[in-house]
Write a structure and sequence with these properties.
It is a multi-pass membrane protein. Belongs to the G-protein coupled receptor 1 family. Keywords: Cell membrane, G-protein coupled receptor, Membrane, Receptor, Transducer, Transmembrane, Transmembrane helix. By secondary structure, the chain is mainly alpha-helical. The protein has eleven helices and two strands. The chain has a single domain, classed as Rhopdopsin 7-helix transmembrane proteins (Up-down Bundle), CATH 1.20.1070. Helix content is 69%, strand content 2%. α2 runs antiparallel to α10 and α8 packs antiparallel against α10. The longest helix is centred in the middle third of the chain and has 38 residues.
Amino acid sequence: MEETELCFPQLNTSCVKPKRPLSDTVLIYMILSFISLLTAALNLLVIISISHFKQLHTPTNSLILSLAVSDFFVGFLLLFQSMLIDGCWYIGDFMCVLCWCIDYIITFSAVGNMTLISIDRYVAICDPLHYSIRVTQKRVQVCVCLCWICSLFCFIVFFKDNLKQPGQYNSCVGECVIMVSLSEQVVGFFIYFILPITVIVVLYMRVFVVAVSQARAMRSHITTVTVQGSRKVTAKKSEVKAARTLGVVVGVFIICFCPYYCVSLADQENLFNASSAAYVICLYYFNSCLNPLIYASFYPWFRKCTKVIVTLQILKSGSSDTNIL
């Protein structure tokens, strides 16, 4: 008989390592490490760009910055998640709860940031005359802070039992298990998925309709469009482009998150095998790596900022005043 391999051979209560070919384990480690480092590096470029260059200090970019911060932490979180590839958790029960804490907080804050981005684009496109009055830098910063605080508060409420005694639900040493009741899962599912996704889709449908009408007006050399009855406003091409770009970000977000949330309340053992479940989780995390790539594809300022940062021109005096738009 093949000898059973334990996570902690010196302990009789240790978990048993699942059997997996060494080549598969090495390949998974390499892929996850690459995605983790790429995610952290790309989002760090976004964080530095928006934080450093004064021209990028706008309400919309403040929301993008908050989203980049949550995506940046996802990159580091993947390094810890890779420990579970061989089925063992080696760094203790407290770190297990802490990693779950970071996971849920950054995930829920990302959902909140996506909702705020949708609201921002809705006001910018559908009510441009009042945008500068309603959406100010201070108000956006307050909303971002509330988003992160609410994520932390909800985590504490949902995981209070796990925080009291970390590891109490582990069946063996080397396991990382967090227990959430079905009622709490249902409440969280509606608060953090159904409600925000509904708001996002409804707002972006409205934004899409208005953006299309503005694009047609601009192609017809019409400089004004009617918004809210008889009010006339100037069509802003940059706002429409920003709405389209962030629309792609939101669309990719929904595509990446839907499979994970759709099975979160279901019996995953009956729906998925280990491989398909891994793909769903990887897609869930890979969204954090895609966002900066979307910015690089649609935003010239991001490509220019990246060049300034990589060539270390950012270290020069007065680089924050560089014209990158």
